[in-house]
Amino acid sequence: MRKKQLFAILLAGAMTAGTVPSAALAAENDIPAASSEVTEGENSDEAPQEEGGVTATPEAEPTQVPEATPEAPTETPAEPTEAPAAPETPAEPTQVPETETIPEAVPSEAPETLETEATGISITTIDENNQETVTYYKTLQEAVDAAPTIESGAQESTVIEITDSLALSGTISVSGKKVSIVAASQGITIRREQKEDGTVFNGTMFTVAGQGSELQFSVKDGSDLTVDGSNGKGEEEPSEGSLADVSDSGAFGISAGVTLTGNNTTAKGGAVSNSGGSLVLKGGTITGNTGAMGAVYSNTDIAVQGTVAIKENTGANLYLDQDASVVVTDVLTGSSISLTAAAPADKKTVAKAGKKADGTDVTSEEFKAAAEQLAYDTEDYSVVLGEDGLSAVLKVNASATVTPSPTPTASPSFLTYQSKSLKWMDHNTVTAKMSTTKDCKWYYYFVDAGSDTNTIKKLYDSSKAKTPAKANTTFTVKAEKVPEKDSWLVVAAKPDNGSAQLRVLKLNSSSRPASPTVSPTVTTRAPRKYEVTESKVTGLENPLQFYPRKFYDFQVVGAGQNDTDPVSGDERWIPLYWSMSVNGTKNKSWRIGSQEKGIREAATYPLYIFFQKQTYNGTEWTDTGVIEYMKTSFSSAEISDAEWKDYIDNYNKEHPDDGLNYDGTSGGSVADIKATEAASEKDSDSTSKSAVSTADESPIGTMSVLAAFSLLAGGYVLVRKRKKEDI
After folding, report:
1. Which fold would CATH assign to domain 415-511?
2. Mind listing the pLDDT tens digit for each residue in 619-664?
3. pTM of the prediction?
4. Is the separation of the CB atoms in 446 and 483 below 8 Å?
5. pLDDT tens digit string along 14-73?
6. Which residues are CB-neighbours of 56 under 8 A, at least 6 positions away?
7. Which of 578, 599, 607, 594 is nearest to 672 (CA)?
8. Contact status, residue 328 vs residue 383, Cβ threshold 8 Å
9. Best CA proximity match to 296, nearest among 659, 141, 280, 201
10. Which of 694, 662, 665 is nearest to 678 (CA)?
11. Which residues pair with 353 in a beta bridge?
């Protein structure tokens, strides 16, 4: 009988301890725990694949919870039906669903949405019910193919997050789509695949082609992305393609935290080749590349802003072909951009001021500062401010020799043309095979048919000979943009030792393919697109003294909000509200302060500002279902004891019926309306404790431990009593 009594008491005690605010623990802790498991467990030990990784099935910890259920099913039949009720209505997720405030959902915050096995490549979508779905892909091309097409009406970029490094076995093609590849972890690298047999993927890594097609490389806070074109064979065997090839009105861009490096190629641009497309550099680094015409080749203008580095490449760094120039579209700070012009001359324009994202012009002061961050690749020229103050031009250095050197000669041939190898590929392109008996570097150019020898020699520019060719080898010249008038093709080669040589190839105009018929199009500017992080916040730049009931106004201007003369397809971001944490209180008044206690210590707090995207339909701006946030911060200034006392005293004089105590608490009857919240310890992004606490601070863990110890102590007393009775 005593055994049954003892067992009943211990069982009841165990059940009591198990019911100590268990529902609160589930609502507050269970979901984040599962999220962390998916993020770290599924991606940490990934085996290398073509472009993505393999998954590791997360371990299921919930099997440890319902231990009490099978112990006494006959005595407490009602309890199993009550226990599952708590998770059905979790308080926090229903009050502030993540999809309401975080359109760019992180897989770790919503593991229940996984529809496929987790890899390092994912796309997050939101349905009409604001429910997020994270879909994973085995390869990067599969993710790109899954993005909606422009023809289907898609106007915004599809965000492809990568959390693991990738190895490409083929070219990633972006056509008819808008794609943003975002690195969401540190140390992310996209490289060429090298197989065990020694073969390497040597082609172009990314292509962007077609009107409206876009490819953007960017990173999340604290992450970085490197696109590395190294093939492991150095200069002995250069690759055949660029890191990114842009053509046919496509658009390509990189942002801060992105590096393009390591590509040695026979293509025009080692990192980027742009022929008829658009380049937008909002930061990033391009270094350690070699191309036939530079690290970055472009025959159209290049937009730059932020901190951009194009330096320490072999040959030209940025090669501006035809009339292309650098366009400064916002403040340029800490940048280093070295360039080469296709036809350098004194006072030739190589840079100019453009318009900012908000539609305002770059000022003369801002452009002057930007021009000082530009340089020329050789000592022949310098980049100086133009007379109008809104352009940068070349200036011939006094010591420079403009005459090409060395001058090509007709000396014994080391460069030969392979007979009958000249062929038209299309109306604008011809190819020819050449052979060399010396290590050299070559390039090509066109001259008018019938040009004399002196004219041909004068057009030669040794600095353009960038494409290497080994001795006793054959190479193919692919000459593009053949002039419409009768022309000759000139192949120029400069050996490592000795004089340069020229070979003039007469083009047969009669066999030239017909020019394709192009339908006339109405030209207009491309729609303006903005990242939410381009929004501006003012009024919080300096630390603020947060006295009780003292509030500060601040201003938020969404990216594109001040654009004038919009065209159909333009986008902008409109501020909605702000919060101290991702899922915190939504404050719609642009004021910040502490209602009651104030903040006396110096600290820094996170601030999340949420925006809604709008699009212009040609007549008016319309709301979209896209809501994203921009993370910033503000700081509190330290308040001395004397300053604190003076403020409290003055406040109480002015408000005798509603005063404050010296600890900052109310001496009157005004309630804390909690118009603002300081950073909470529960905010994973927070670095400081909360000055105003709104969360449930019940010591649940302590209560549970104390209950368990009480039960143990009770059991110990019963056992001791039993032993004494037995004696």
Report:
1. Immunoglobulin-like (2.60.40)
2. 899 998 899 999 999 999 999 999 989 998 998 888 888 788 777 6
3. 0.45
4. yes
5. 554 444 433 332 333 332 323 333 333 333 333 333 333 333 333 333 334 334 333 433
6. 41, 42, 43, 44, 45
7. 594
8. no
9. 280
10. 694
11. 328
